[in-house]
Amino acid sequence: MITFDEASAILRGAARPLEAVEISLAEASGHRLAGDVAARIDAPRSDVSAMDGYAVRNGDLHAPLSVVGTSYAGSPPGLSVEEGEAVRIFTGAPVPQGADWVIVQEIVEREGDIMRLTGEFSEARHIRPRGSDFSEGDILLERGAMLGPRQMVAAAAAGQASLSVWGKPRVAILATGDELVAPGKSPDIEGSIPDSISLALAALSRNYGAEIAGHEICADDPAKIAQAAGSLLSSCDVLVMVGGASVGERDFASSSIAGGGFETLFAKVAMRPGKPVWCAKDAKGRFVLGLPGNPTSAMVTARLFLAPLLTALAGGEYDDALVWKELELLSSMPAPGPREHFGRGRLVDRKAEPFANQQSGAQAALAAADVLLRQPGGSVEAGKGETIAALDF
């Protein structure tokens, strides 16, 4: 067996971003940028008003002024003010040539085309200069940035209609086991177990930038598993196989891809839970990641291997998904034994509370678990008040 760090190094070295594609801005959310986004225009594109009011010359602030026009947001530049004149102006509208002050409407009295100042004005000129937000050519978003709601604002403001992005990894999930049935069916089928992990893996995959290309439940039959795996691999970049990865006499998942052009990257890792985890890759760059069948083991190994793999395939850095932090323990954790232990716990006032039930088959506790707590293999008990390496779960 190899260590978790060794397995991570192998997978990190094997993962490369998918092919970059040019897509419309409307479709770009959730992708990572394959190149920088530069502004095609200045923002604002001219001096504009920051308030509703009247654009005037500084020297005319105390005199009655003649209103000679109106400037709206979106109006083309071209208006001007001369001595003794003002232009009615609204927020975002271009400031007329010659004006260097916007008087807010709340301190103005107007009769016909004549306006007078009726209140005290501040030193604020209420004008946003051209290019004060950004200028043409400025880099607003850098290569590798994830396009979320705020980044979409910047990309649109830059004047871009399309963007170069990394493709989203396509993930397929194959859950194996004679006992598995779709959620909702098990109450009516004696001896069955709900497939509680596949939908969770799909949700995790989407959280890390992937799209779901397919999902199947397959009985413990080598021929059927091989057929299902081959079918799913035709439309995905990563096939996640759940179950059939240990040493039981009916564990067929890893052997089902033998001879299919896949090279094993690692098989078994000295960790708890998740020892049976394995990974393979073919010449086309497709990955097969085998996860244990127990729900907690599957979720822990998915968080530690699938999440960073998808991050890297989607154009991010592998280690962006493995940011460890130090947390103080609110209660002790027993010595982990010879294998590295990734315990489950929850955050309480920025401290870690490990769960008493650390069984790999536990499902109820998963809903409350929001951190993984890392104990090196062969280490001693981690006592209350000590710090421990933690990863958001």
TrEMBL record:
Keyword entries, A-Z: Magnesium, Metal-binding, Molybdenum, Molybdenum cofactor biosynthesis, Transferase
Stretches assigned to the MoaB/Mog domain: 172-312
Domain of life of the native organism: Bacteria
Statement: the UniProt record of this protein carries the keyword Transferase: yes
Keyword DNA damage: no
EC code(s) of this entry: 2.10.1.1
CC cofactor: Mg(2+)
Residue ranges the record marks as coiled coil: none
Reaction it catalyzes: adenylyl-molybdopterin + molybdate = Mo-molybdopterin + AMP + H(+)
Family as reported in the entry's similarity comment: Belongs to the MoeA family.
Record-given protein name: Molybdopterin molybdenumtransferase
Species annotation: Qipengyuania psychrotolerans
